[in-house]
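Example for tutorial group B:
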């Protein structure tokens, strides 16, 4: 059995056909090959071990390390014609310890993710605030709420919008102007309706360009306070 020879420690087989223990005549879910023939786990002195299926590498590694006695479980694959690993047998206390360690790790990872999420939220808020200030500087007549909305929309993390481009993150004036133009195009003109009417994109942009220019010209002037 080549796969068994390469596996460290004891090897236990998950049989694919009926079998009988060479000592007690009984059967079990797994067997251990012995000089006398196949043995059930009880007769092989492995009956106190618990089966841990493969799938969680960290849990398996820790359980095997903590268990003073363990065995690799394999099963013959008819299609691949080889023995394939199914999991391990370990002591109950070793499995419990490994589960506790993995849960502790998951808690730590969760806390780290929460800290990273909070840091990103603060960074995004600061970036969008700076972006809104730049919009107001370039377009002093733009209502503050609108400037904040444009900054939030174009600066959304992962959106691939102008505000998240390298130029946008650098608060480049051209990139900011493009973001403002996009907002005006969609919210202050009939551009979306033209697209819905199947007008080609370029033609629709040409149609609404005068409307955009009028809004931008108004916003470039400081708003009059009463």
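The residue assignment follows.
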């Amino acid at each position: 059995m080549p796969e068994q020879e390469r596996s460290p420690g004891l090897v236990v087989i998950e049989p694919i056909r009926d079998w009988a223990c060479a000592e007690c005549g009984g059967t079990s879910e797994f067997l251990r090959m012995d000089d006398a023939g196949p043995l059930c786990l009880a007769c092989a002195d492995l009956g106190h071990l618990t089966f841990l299926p493969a799938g969680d590498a960290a849990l398996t590694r820790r359980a095997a390390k903590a268990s003073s006695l363990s065995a690799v479980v394999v099963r013959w694959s008819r299609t691949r014609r080889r023995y394939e690993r199914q999991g391990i047998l370990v002591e109950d206390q070793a499995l419990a310890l490994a589960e506790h360690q993995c849960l502790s790790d998951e808690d730590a990872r969760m806390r780290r993710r929460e800290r990273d999420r909070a840091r990103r939220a603060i960074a995004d808020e600061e970036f969008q605030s700076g972006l809104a200030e730049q919009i107001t500087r370039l377009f002093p007549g733009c209502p503050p709420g609108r400037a904040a909305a444009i900054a939030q929309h174009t600066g959304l993390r992962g959106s691939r919008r102008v505000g998240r481009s390298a130029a946008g993150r650098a608060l480049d004036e051209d990139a900011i102007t493009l973001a403002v133009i996009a907002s005006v195009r969609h919210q202050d003109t009939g551009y979306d309706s033209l697209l819905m009417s199947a007008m080609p994109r370029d033609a629709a942009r040409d149609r609404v360009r005068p409307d955009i220019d009028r809004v931008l010209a108004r916003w470039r002037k400081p708003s009059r306070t009463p």
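DSSP finds eight helices and six strands in the chain. Compare this with the pattern of hydrophobic and polar residues in the output above.
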